[in-house]
Amino acid sequence: AGGASQKSQFSAFTVQSKTMEIFLIKALQLMLALSILVLLHEGGHFFFSKLFGVRVEKFYLFFDPWFHLFEFKPKNSDTTYGMGWLPLGGYCKISGMIDESFDTEQMKQPAKPWEFRSKPAWQRLLIMVGGVLMNFLLAIFIYSMILFHWGDSFVSLQDMTHGMKFNERAREIGFRDGDILLRADEKPLERFGVDMLRDIAEARTVTVLRDGKEAEVYMPEISLLDIAKDDPMFVTALVPNVVDSVIPGGGLDKAGIQKGDSLIAVNGEMLNSWNALVEKLDNMQADAEATGDKDASLQMVYSRNGLRDTVTVRTDSLFRVGATFSSLADYKETTREFGFFESFPAGVQLGVNTLKGYVNDMKYVFTKEGAKSVGGFGTIGSIFPKVWDWHRFWEMTAFLSIILAFMNILPIPALDGGHVLFLLYEIIARRKPSDKFMEYAQMVGMFLLFALLIWANFNDIMRFLF
Question: pLDDT per residue over 389-411, tens digit each?
């Protein structure tokens, strides 16, 4: 009993250590990505400020309320460089403008020639859009280098010859397991992903290949958010119910199941795919967590060389049966390679398409379900892989750079877009908003931003707890 207890404790310790390792890897990737994005964003403001002779007083990575981690001021420089401790962004304090520092005393003094407020409106406009511009250019550059170094590899939906597995909602609409997705309206469906889901949600008809013939599925009014939140997923790749390999000592191995066997039914329910068995096991795990009963066995019907038999299969503590099945790796992979100069127009197209998709999906934020789906740092960190993967890291960094560019250009006071809005007003009306108005607008914007930040991270906490 003592040995079993020690083994259980060691197993629990191993699981906790693995969980902590995954958390640290994701956290480090998030911090590195944010550091790159913030430095380049603030660097955009810095570049145009210096270009037009505007003095930059402070250039900081992260915020520094009450104290900073370090700072230094080069000899003969007007700028103090430093690093704060609060990783919510960064800032470039520009002389002669009302920003998050709320330095109103400076604004009471006569305008100096090196100050932001002394420059023509078009120069101030470029200074304010410099951060957004830098983030978008960074995303395009990263996408271009990803295509140049790794190329573009994917499994075409038409090459997924086993078709797709659909959930109950999709089957009610008219999809059938095994359908091969061809077109959404007249747009070809090329690869699995959020763009595919968006095209399906916005289509009137989806054309599929069913039993060797094309068939049309008529789509009801449905949003991408409705599809994306489905569990099990609205559509996923169908994995055949043919055993690819058996894990020694696992439930299927002990029951005598071998490589090449087809799993026909479990506990009286027919199986048409490995996905169906996974869904069954997930439901059993959910029931076990509710009742506390971890002891589970399955009556499984399998076929071998045309002959059927029934066996009892024991699951482990995580409700796994100890086998692997065919996966996307079994399909033909399409790879597009790009030369150095070819990668840039392709990177531009990828960046623009990513921005279009993100802007299109923003409408869901203003719905009840969309507001609940808004996430903070936990959600952002979760998109990074569990192991350090440079390919995936740079893809996520480019995507976050697109998001940062778009969010900052929104016409909200305290964001770059708010300053741009007031500058455009000045150019059109030929008069500046008053400093007092700008101060109040900055305060309102900061309040809105902090409220959004609190709400997003509150959602993360609630998702973690429940």
Answer: 898 899 999 999 998 899 888 88
